[in-house]
Amino acid sequence: MTPTFAVVGHPNKGKSSIVSTLVESSxxxxxxxxxxxxxxxxxxxxxxxxxxxxxxxxxxFQRPRKVLAWLEKNSKSADDRPQTVAKFVETYQHDKNFHxxxxxxxxxxxxxxxxYVVDGSKPYGVxxxxxxxxxxxxxxxxxxxxxxxxxxDYIEEWRTALDQYFAIVRVFDAMHADASKRIGLLxxxxxxxxxxxPSLLNAVNILEVDQIQRYKRSAKVxxxxxxxxxxxxxxxxxxxxxxxxxxxEKLTEALKENLRKLEQKARKEIEYIYRHQHIERxxxxxxxxxxxxxxxxxxxxxxxxxxxxxxxxxxxxxxxGLGIDVMxxxxxxxxxxxxxxxxxxxxxxxxxxxxxxxxxxxKTLTDRNLNVGPVKDVNLPYILLSRAxxxxxxxxxxxxAIREALVMEAESAQHISQNIPxxxxxxLDKIFSTIRQRGYDTGNKALRDIIEVLLTENMKADMQx
Length: 465
Ligand SMILES: Nc1nc2c(ncn2[C@@H]2O[C@H](COP(=O)(O)OP(=O)(O)OP(=O)(O)O)[C@@H](O)[C@H]2O)c(=O)[nH]1
Ligand SMILES: [Mg+2]
Hints:
alpha/beta; Rossmann fold; 4-stranded antiparallel beta sheet; 16 helices; 15% strand; elongated; binds guanosine-5'-triphosphate; binds magnesium ion
C-alpha cells in the first residue's frame, strides 16, 4: 500500500504549504486567509510512473472542543476510541457545522498517518489540546511538524507539549526546506510506521537518484542552448537589384530574437525538470545590442553555388537534350543536386555565361543569399551560460510552496562566469570554437559534462551556506 499522510492542524498554519513542498506541486491553493482549504484533497508524489507516497491536504480544525466533548460522551474505554471517531464522522458527515472535522478525520479512518502542523513562531496555547487529543483518539501513527511562519521562537514550549502526543516531533520550515531536508523528513516518516518502511526507504532512494538526474538533464538543456546559439544564423534570398542593408538589419534583429527565444525555451525546460511549470519569471532580457555578427552574401540556388551547378552539369551530359519547359515541369519534384544536374544540362545547352538568365521556380542564379550569423562575439556563450546557471540555481532551490514570481537580476549573473576556473574556461573556449567551426550540434558530451560540474558546484556552495 502507498504510504499516505494527512496533513492536519489549526487553520492557516502552513498545511497546504507543507503538502506543496513534499509533493513538489505549485498548483495547490495557499493563502494567509484562514479557511483556504475547504475539502480534503489527495496529492501523489510521482517520479516517472512510481507513486512514492501520497499527502492529503485537509481543512483546519474548527470546533475541536465540541468534537472532543462528543467523543468523550460516546466512548466507554480507551479501546473503543478509534471506533468512536469513526462513529462521529458517520453521524456528522452531512452536518455543515462539522464539515471540516469530518473532512480531516476521513483520511485518518482510511489508514493515513498524521502530520500535525503547528506554527512555532507563535506561543503554545491550551486551545490546541483538544485537536491533539482527537488525533490521539484515532490511534494512527503521529508526527508533529513545527513550522515557522513569523519571527518568534517558541519551539521549546511547543516541543514539550507535542512530545506528549506525537511519536516524532520535527522542526520543518515549509517555505525554505530544500531537497535534502525533504528527504530527511521522509526518513523520519519511515520510523513512524514499520509497515511503510520499505516503501519509504525506496522512495528516498528514488528521490536521491532523481536529484542527480535533474542535474544531468539540466546540463543537457544548457549545452544544447549554447550549441544552438553558437550556430544560429539567418538568411534570405534577394534579387540582384535589392539594397541589402535594410534586409541585413532585419535578419540581425531576427537572429537576436531567435537567441532570446532559445534562452526562453531552455528556461521552460529547466523549470519543467524541477516541476515548476507555473512559475512567473521576472528577468531583464538579454542585452544583445553590441553583438559582433558574421554576415555575408553568396549567390546560390537551392543550396548550390554557381560553380557546384556548373560542375555537376559537366557530369550530366545525359540531360543535355532536355528543354527548359520540361525541366521546369519536373523541378518541383527534384531536390538539391538533381536540380543542379538539370541546370547543368541547361548550362550545356546555353553556355554558363547565360546561366544567370535561367529561372527555376522563379529564382535566378544572380539572386543573392544574404546571411547573418553566427555570432562572432566570444562573450555570447558565457553570457548565456552565466544566466542559465543562475536561473538553474534559483529554480532548483525554489520551494514549491512559494507563490511569488521568480526574480532574476542580470547583474548578479555576471559574477558567475567570473567564478568559472581558468582551466575550465580554456576547455570551454576550445569547445565553443569547435562548435562554431562545425556549425551544427555535435551533441557535445564534453560540454554537457563541464556544465554538469558547474551546476553541481553551485549545489555544493548552497549546502555549505
Ligand atoms: N514565512 C513563512 N510563511 C509561511 C510558511 N508556511 C506557510 N506560510 C504562510 O502562511 C499562510 C498560510 O499557509 P497555508 O499553507 O495556506 O496554510 P493552511 O494551514 O493550509 O491554511 P488553511 O487551508 O486556511 O487551513 C500563507 O500565507 C503562507 O504563505 C513558512 O514556513 N514561512
Ligand atoms: Mg490549506
